[in-house]
Amino acid sequence: MIKKINELLKEVEEFATDSFDEAEEFRIRLLSKKGQISLLFNDFKALPPEEKKLVGQQLNTLKESALNKVNEIKQRIEEQKQQTSGSDKYPDLTLPVDFAEAGSRHPISIVRNQINGIFEKIGFVISEGPEIENDWHNFSALNFAEDHPARDMQDTFFVEKNPDVALRTHTSSVQVRVMNNQKPPIRTISPGRVFRNEAISARAHCIFHQVEGLYIDKGVSFADLKHVLDHFAREFFGPETKIRLRPSYFPFTEPSAEVDVSCPFCKGKGCNICKGTGWVEIMGCGMVDPNVLENCNIDSTVYTGYAFGMGIERITMLKYMVNDLRLYFENDLRFLRQFSSAW
Ligand code: PHE
For the whole model, what pTM was predicted? Predict the structure, then answer.
């Protein structure tokens, strides 16, 4: 029996494995109810008392070392498993990265932010106002005659009639609010969405966006207006850009002008975009009509001012060569994905 114990002891000492299943098999073969060590304990009971002491000690040592060995191996395997597979706390840092797709701004927002930035840098403050306006802010204060065609149902979306409430047709309405609430000097730009009752086509839409500017102070002249427009054109379209002013008419400015820039595509040589003229129209402008200042309680004998207004869609078209206005409102991802900007 001692011999058998020593053989098993040797076997326990030499046993090594990296397999959890093999360790479990080993435990069952030696230590389970019908295992070799358990069987030795059965035999032990039949031994004469004088042998029992020595054999008993050896048998206990064997059982203990077998148990320890199995537990050690199982524990080591368990620890290794945790280290290699990673616990919940530490994800596998070697896995390939799953890039989140970055969105991009809408081209109208990109261009609006750029226009705002150019004017903010030279001291203009952004002002915003409601998209639903009353007749006074959108028309009357701006010197539109009672029978002016722009008030007609053709152009304006009315929300209510008598008294008239409508979707604003331009952001000049915001500037009326600024003039009503602030004392000159006023230097503000009003970006925003405007609405006109037009049939939707590649060249016209019933919703579009404007940035309008207003500067009122003592001694503001047409030369100041021309200078700021020249600055804007060169900042936005490039330093070689030229502007030209053509006489025009707006009820709220006198004199009034349309502003053209030298064609950003052909640099003034003449191409499809500028229809061979070398110039493209980008905005309207003029000196604020004294009637408008008086309507807003600003003394027109003391103060003068200039105003300008541009459509963001048109400027965006010139920047990105998008020639169908409808694309700006359809949210087609194939269109939107082409624009990326930090602005
Ligand atoms: N409000 C005009 C428009 O919507 C643009 C404009 C603004 C023209 C200021 C002149 C001066 O068309």
Answer: 0.71
